[in-house]
Amino acid sequence: LQEAAQKLKPSAPIKFHISSRTDTGVHALANAAHLDIQRPPGKAPFTAQQLVQGLNHHLKPEPIRILSAQRVPGTFHARFCALSRTYIYRLLLGCAHHSQIPVFERDLCWAPAGGPLDIPAMRAAAEFLLGTHDFSTFRSPSSENRSQSPVRTLLQLRIQPAPAALAHHYQHRELEFWEVKVKGRAFLYRQVRRMVGALVAVGQGKLSPQHIQELLELKDARAFPPYAMAPASGLFLKSVEY
């Protein structure tokens, strides 16, 4: 995106800031960013429409599109002014083998092995994660910024059925799409994927709901079960709220 903006021929290097960085393999339905564009003397500032069209023209080869643009005050910051971020993690249940994952859903969901999930147990476990906690256990031990506070506030954590966009085309009618909706102001590195993985482990009977509370209280990333890391493919940044 920064390279695309630079092709709009600004009079100074572009300063570009994105609201949320995502791991390789994680998707974004909608992200937010801000950038400062100085135009040469005598050139009028870009309108919102010109900016959207110009950036999208240079982004054609990339799997990214600008949906909208607007002028903001100089005090605005895409990352630090965000009130909350909402993520969706898509689960596909009912697959006896990974070959049963619909071709249009590959790399867009996680199909955990081992049969049906105990959704009520997962919801009971999710209650322990809601609110303000030290999420050290749910932070990746490879986190770059170890000085970052591990205290985070989880505003919402829902496990709910989700319709598949092409469900009426699928031959395997027993397939069920579920989503874990997570909302908070900010998250630790890989926190959402570790929380979802732990909840799925509860649904599989590998952990009990109370184990989630115990993991929180341990405040130690090394205590996190290595088998309970959800893959990147099912995670989507849904929205950033200001």
Automatic annotation (TrEMBL):
CDD domains per record: PseudoU_synth_EcTruA
Domain of life: Eukaryota
A Pfam family of this chain: PseudoU_synth_1
One example GO MF annotation: tRNA pseudouridine(38-40) synthase activity
UniProt-listed InterPro entries: PsdUridine_synth_cat_dom_sf, PsdUridine_synth_TruA, PsdUridine_synth_TruA_a/b_dom, PsdUridine_synth_TruA_C, TruA/RsuA/RluB/E/F_N
Top enzyme category: isomerase
EC annotation from Swiss-Prot or TrEMBL: 5.4.99.12
UniProt keyword Isomerase present: yes
Ranges of residues in domain Pseudouridine synthase I TruA alpha/beta: 125-242
One annotated GO biological process: tRNA pseudouridine synthesis
Annotated substrate binding sites: 87
Keyword Mitochondrion on entry: no
Reaction(s) this enzyme catalyzes, per UniProt: uridine(38/39/40) in tRNA = pseudouridine(38/39/40) in tRNA
Gene3D superfamilies: Pseudouridine synthase I, catalytic domain, C-terminal subdomain, Pseudouridine synthase I, catalytic domain, N-terminal subdomain
Active site residues per record: 23
Key words of the record: Isomerase, tRNA processing
Entry similarity comment: Belongs to the tRNA pseudouridine synthase TruA family.
Protein name: tRNA pseudouridine synthase
